[in-house]
Amino acid sequence: MRSAVWVVLRAAQQEQGCQGDMSIDEDTRWLEWVTKQFESIAGDDKEIDLDEFKTALKVKESFFAERFFALFDSDGSSSISLDELLKALDLLIHGSETDKLRFLFQVYDVDGSGSIDPDELRTVLKSCLRESAISLPEEKLDDLTLALFESADQDNSGSITFEELKAELENFPEVMENLTISAANWLKPPDLEQKKRKTPRYLTRAYWHNNSRKLLFLCMYSLLNVLLFIIAMLKNAHGGPLFMVARGCGQCLNLNCTFVMVLMLRRCLTWLRATWLVRVFPLDQNILLHQIVGYAILIFSIVHTGAHVMNFARMSQNDGMYQLWEYLFTIRPGIGWVNGTASITGVVLQVLICLMVVCSSTFVRRSGHFEVFYWSHLSYIWVWALLIVHCANFWKWFVVPGLMFLIEKLVGIAVSRMGGLYIVEVNLLPSKVTHLVIKRPPFFHFKPGDYVYINIPVIAKYEWHPFTISSAPEQQDTLWLHVRSMGQWTNRLYEYFRQPESQAISNKRLTASLRNRRHETKLSENHRYCNIKCYVDGPFGTPTRQIFASEHAVLIGAGIGITPFASILQSIIYRMRKQNCPNCNYSWCETIKDNEMKLRKVDFIWINRDQKSFEWFVSLLTKLEMDQADEEPEGRFLEMHMYMTSALSKNDMKAIGLQMALDLLAKKEKRDSITGLRTRTQPGRPDWAKVFQKVSEEKKGKVHVFYCGSPALAKHIKAQCEHFGFNFYKENF
Length: 733
Fold this sequence. Notes:
By secondary structure, the chain is of the alpha/beta class. Helix content is 51%, strand content 13%. The strands form 3 sheets. Strands 1, 2, 3, 4, 5, 6 and 7 form a 7-stranded antiparallel sheet that branches. Strands 13-12-11-8-14-15 form a 6-stranded parallel sheet, sandwiched between helices. The two termini are 61 Å apart.
C-alpha cells in the first residue's frame, strides 16, 4: 500500500510544480518518517481513532481536532488509515496555497454548506481564543467576529464564500508564507540541514570580536595561574613530583580564594563602572567570572588534596612512622604552621568547598531552593578562617582584599540600618507577582536598572534577597520592587500579603496581632496600605547603567525580566518633556539632553507566556504610548514590541482567523484587544534574525542589546547579536 501511496504523492507533487517539488530521497525519508509516527500512534487495528488523534495533535481545544479528524477521515469510517493520513498531510505540507486554503475553508464551514455564516465564524474564533490561551469578554468576541466577517463578506450576502476568504487572506501576505498546522510537527521528519555540523560559535570571528574583553581577561587569568603553579613547583622540587603538584595547586588556591572575593565587591564594582575601566575589564560579567573562579578553586583543591593523600600514602609505606589515617585526621605528624593542623583543616576545607559548589549549582538556585544556596554560601567565612590556619602564607594574599571586603560589609550594614525604611503599599499582581512600594530615604540615589538587597524581618529575619528597582530615579518619594514568586522566601512574601487580615491575626499570638493591627491601615483583596519595617542594602550597578550612553538600545525583557527596563522606561518619561504650543493645540516631545544621554532610538521588546502578565506594567506602557501619540511611527524615539508565546503564530491554521480578526479590530479601534495598548501584541516567539535585521537597517548608531530573563533564551539572543555585530549585555546579580 505504501508504494502505491508514494506514486500518488509523486504525481500530485509533479502537478503542483515547484511549490511541492521534493527529491525522491526526501520523499522516501518523509514517507518512512510518517509511517513510523503513524505506527507509534495507531492501535492494534492500525487505525487512528479520534482520541488517539487528539493526543497526537496536542491541541488544547477539541473543536480543531474534531474538524481536522473529519476532513482527514475521507471515507467516514470514524478512523484514519495510513493512506488517508498520507494524502491529507501531503496536501498540508506539500500542497499549493489554494489547496491549503480550501482545507482551511472546510474547517471553518462547520455545516458543510459551502459558505461560512457569522455563527460558524464566532464558534471558530472562540476555539481559536482557547487554543491560544487568550481570555476576552463575550462582547469583544462579538466585535472580533463582526470585524472579520464584515471585511471578508464583500458582497454583503450574509455569508463568506471560498473566493471571499481567499481574497481576504491575500491582505495578509505574511500568513501565506507558511500556512500549515504547527501542532502536526510530529509528522515532519527532522531537517537534515540542522544535522550538518556547523562551526561552533566559540570559534567564529564574531564571537571573539564581541567577547574580546572577557577572553583577554581569561587569558591573563589563566597565564597567571600557570605562572604561579610553575614557580611553586620549582621551589619545591626537593619534595618529589606529588609534593610539587600539591604546592603548585596550593599557590593557585592562594590567588583564587582571594580573587573570588574581589569579584563580589559590589560597591567597588559599581563605582568602577562609572570609570574608564569598564571599557577595559569585563566588569559586567563579574558573576560569570566568579563562577569560573569557583570551579577553578574546586579543581585545584581536589588535585591539591589528592596529591597530598597519595604523598601521605607513600610516606606511610616507606617510613612506617604514621598510618595514612593519622596523616589525614590527627595532628601527630605535626604538619602545618598552627599546631600541626594542616591535614585536618585541609579535609574540612575540601568538604566545605565541595558543598558550596554543589549548593550553588543552577539546579539548586532555579528549582525554588535559593535558601540552600544562600545559607551554604555563608560558609565562606569558615573557609577563609580555615585557610589562614591551614596555609602559612595565605594571610599575605588575604589581608588587602579581606580588608576591602570587611569595609564593604560594614558600609552595607550602616547603609541598610540608616534611617527608617518601611513598605507603605503592596499590590498583588497576576502570576504571583508582589509589587512592593517602599518609602524612599532622601540619601538614597541610584541609576536606572540598579538593584538592591532587601531584608523583611516579618518574612525572614536574617535573609537578604536581590531585586531590581523597577521605579525611576526621578521618582523621589518611593522605591518600587516587583517580586516574582519562584522560591520559598518569595512565596512566603506573596502569601503573607495575600491572606486576609482576620486570618493573619487569628494565626498569631496577641502581641503579633496587636502589631499587625497597628501596621495594617487598609486592606483589600489585591491591594493594601501598610507600614512594615524593612532594610535595604544598595544600590548596586548592572550593565544596564550603560543604556543612556548607547546610541541605539534594544531592551529585551522576558517575563518578570522587564523590571530593570521598567525603571529605564520611566526615566525616559521624565527625560522627555512634553511641550505645547500656546497658539494652537500642537504638542511634541522634547528629549532632555545631558552628558549621559546619547540615545537616539530605543526598541523595547517584552516577551510573556500568558496574557495576564502584561498587566504588571500596562499603565506605564500606556503612558509611554500617549507621550508619543502625535509622532509618526518611523520618527518615534521609543518603539515597543509585545510577544505572547502561548498564542499560536499567524501561519497556524488554528489561529489564522483569530489573528486576522485581531489585526482588523486593532486598526478599527486603534487599540490591541489583548493588552489595551496601541501596540499590537504579536503571537508566538520573535524571529530574532528578522528583528535584528530590521534594527540593523535603521542605522541609528551603534546597537547595544540589553537582556534580562531566562538563561536559555539569552544564549540564542547572544548568538544572533554576535552575527549582527551588536554588543550584548545580560543582567546578572
